[in-house]
């Protein structure tokens, strides 16, 4: 069956108007065009839909039975058209974002909330996985945007690297709060919460402590920066974590101080190299950049 939207529109207009002339006026068509469309529709359905009587069209019993389906069908087509307009405008759709633990607690929830206030018609799905798994999901087009630790572990990705300067976090009653800048010497003899023990931040910290001939005790590891902060709040140890989680105003009794020499958290925002982002994903990426920008520092390696 080769049913056309115009056929359904003619059926609906005739059903409501009761004559070819009024239906033609309503649809901005000629009367012959309406008659031809009705004839084709009746031929497609294999049944008579209207009784003709001196210019007036009365629906048959079969037409009455079809009427509700036709009305719903036309309404659905209108909704499809409206939805397509919304998607083109970036005000509707769905996006998927995957991140490792670093940005999952104190960055992306806020970014997503702000984004959805501005774009209530766009559904956002957030996945938290390891950096390698996030990269694999972006490469296989399971998600639109990924946030991972540098470097990128797989090929076929576009990446925008961002460098953040880590901070030292401690409880607000820790004696270290009297210092504006925390140095390796000040952490000599202290218990320090690590990330994984082999994370880039852990290795940088270890190197700084060795250079300063400062001895510390790694009390435990947390895997997530946000968990390291929670452990600081609960136990009184200190930790070196990224500024997003370290500087967050959580009213948890934890404060931060600059650490010098600097230790960096290097992250990469990744997308698929061969598939351009949709409108909704581009809007989200802009909002993500807006959220990350205050924490980014100049990466001197890019100029070397």
UniProtKB/TrEMBL annotation:
This is LysR family transcriptional regulator. Residues 3-60 form the HTH lysR-type domain. Belongs to the LysR transcriptional regulatory family. GO terms for molecular function: DNA-binding transcription factor activity; sequence-specific DNA binding. Keywords: DNA-binding, Transcription, Transcription regulation. Pfam families: HTH_1, LysR_substrate. It comes from the Bacteria. It comes from Roseovarius nubinhibens. GO terms for biological process: positive regulation of gene expression. InterPro entries: LysR_HTH_N, LysR_subst-bd, WH-like_DNA-bd_sf, WH_DNA-bd_sf.
């Amino acid at each position: 069956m080769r049913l056309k939207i115009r056929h359904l529109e003619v059926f609906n207009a005739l059903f409501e108007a009761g004559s070819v002339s009024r239906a033609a006026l309503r649809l901005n068509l000629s009367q012959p065009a309406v008659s031809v469309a009705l004839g084709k529709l009746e031929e497609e359905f294999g049944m008579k839909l209207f009784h003709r009587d001196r210019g007036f069209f009365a629906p048959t019993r079969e037409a009455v039975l079809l009427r509700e389906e036709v009305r719903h069908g036309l309404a659905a087509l209108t909704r499809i058209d409206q939805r397509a307009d919304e998607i083109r405008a970036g005000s509707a759709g769905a996006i998927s974002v995957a991140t490792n633990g670093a940005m999952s607690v104190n960055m992306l929830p806020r970014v997503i909330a702000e984004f959805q206030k501005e774009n209530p018609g766009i559904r956002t799905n957030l996945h938290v996985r390891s950096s390698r798994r996030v990269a694999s999901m972006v490469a296989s087009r399971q998600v639109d945007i990924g946030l991972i630790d540098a470097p990128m572990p797989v090929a076929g990705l576009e990446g925008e690297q961002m460098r953040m300067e880590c901070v030292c976090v401690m409880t607000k009653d820790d004696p270290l709060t009297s210092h504006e800048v925390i140095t390796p010497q000040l952490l000599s003899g202290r218990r320090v919460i690590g990330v994984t023990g082999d994370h880039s931040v852990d290795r940088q910290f270890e190197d700084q402590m060795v250079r300063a001939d400062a001895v510390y005790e790694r009390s435990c590891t947390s895997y997530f920066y946000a968990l390291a902060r929670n452990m600081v709040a609960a136990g009184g140890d200190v930790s070196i974590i990224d500024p997003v989680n370290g500087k967050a105003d959580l009213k948890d009794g934890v404060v931060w101080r600059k650490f010098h020499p600097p230790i960096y958290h290097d992250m990469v925002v990744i997308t698929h190299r061969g598939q351009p982002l949709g409108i909704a994903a581009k809007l989200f990426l802009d909002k993500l950049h807006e959220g990350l920008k205050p924490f980014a520092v100049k990466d001197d390696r890019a100029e070397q």
